Amino acid sequence: MEYTESKSGLNFSRMALGCMNLPVEDEIAAEEIIEYALSQHINFFDTADLYQFGRNEETVGKILKRYQSRYNLYVGTKVGNEFDRSLQQKTGWNPGRKYIKAEIKMSLRRLGMDHIDLYQLHGGTIEDDMDDTILAFEELKSEGLIRSYGISSIRPNVIDHYYRKSNMDTLMLQLNPLDNRPEEFLEALDGITILARGPVMQGLFTDCHEYHLKEKFPDGIFNYPQEELSRIFAMLARHHDDLTALSFKYLIDKGAVIVTGVSTLEQLEKNLESLKKAAAMDENEMKTAEKLFKKERYEVHRL
Ligand SMILES: NC(=O)c1ccc[n+]([C@@H]2O[C@H](COP(=O)([O-])OP(=O)(O)OC[C@H]3O[C@@H](n4cnc5c(N)ncnc54)[C@H](OP(=O)(O)O)[C@@H]3O)[C@@H](O)[C@H]2O)c1
């Protein structure tokens, strides 16, 4: 496993485990996935207070605690979405300092931990009082409750503000050869570790592309109708034996941390195999495949 170090010294494994789709209702299955990830040198686990309205943090925290003495691991979670656990509903957006400093105590309790390695703002708008949010993160850092902070955002104007005004370590956004919207500003984000979510575009860059396309993208994606995507992925599959490796090669070349999301152990096993193939892949193979996709840009929330 290759590693990449962030500004604050977190040494992220090239592949991280996104815990959003873990089967948290089946703790044994969830533990099998996490244990396998650790055994394969994955050291970063991404959750959020919102995932399953607190249950994801509880399950992931409980499992990881059993391995903390044996492995050097990092936990990342997110804040900003107010939710009602009993109603299982998101109820609002709150990036305020007071809210963040109260909510971290809830996340720490659910995780069963005394600090959070990476605390991320789970979204945000240009109308937020972003300097108040930054102050909250800076205070939590000096109090030793977090080691570093970052944002999860696909809004160029919000990203620009945090990049210029904060000491954020990481930016999480969806990134893969199809959703290549971030490309126009990635290189300018000097010193920021990119956490690439959606690395297989929810299953499109896998051998189950047709199934995931029909199930998850009935209206197509961006300006691609479903039929066009079906043709593109069928063509990719005719020329490449591993679509996941193609997307991972694209992300490795960008220096991103691949936050792989899985719901089964088999998917994680396959994705780790694809990571090995990606590391050995010829650059031209990926570049030729990449040309099948249009260059996208974020149409709203621009600078
Ligand atoms: N706003 C945010 O901050 C935000 C938003 C989204 C995600 N995230 C984070 O990023 C992580 C990854 O995001 P994502 O779940 O969108 O990423 P993804 O890796 O593109 O998609 C994950 C899904 O793709 C399918 N899949 C993965 N590997 C597969 C394989 N080898 N074969 C067949 N299908 C496969 C599975 O779908 P099925 O489960 O349907 O089989 C899996 O749940 C999340 O876990 C979460 O930690 C953050």
TrEMBL record:
Keywords of this entry: Coiled coil
Domain NADP-dependent oxidoreductase: residue ranges: 15-291
GO MF terms held by the record: oxidoreductase activity
Pfam family, one: Aldo_ket_red
UniProt KW Lyase keyword: no
Signal sequence range: none
Keyword ATP-binding included in the entry's annotation: no
Gene3D superfamilies the UniProt entry points to: NADP-dependent oxidoreductase domain
Superkingdom assignment: Bacteria
CDD domains for the chain: AKR_AKR11C1
Organism: Lacicoccus alkaliphilus DSM 16010
UniProt-recorded name of the protein: Predicted oxidoreductase
Coiled coil: 265-292
Lineage: Bacteria, Bacillati, Bacillota, Bacilli, Bacillales
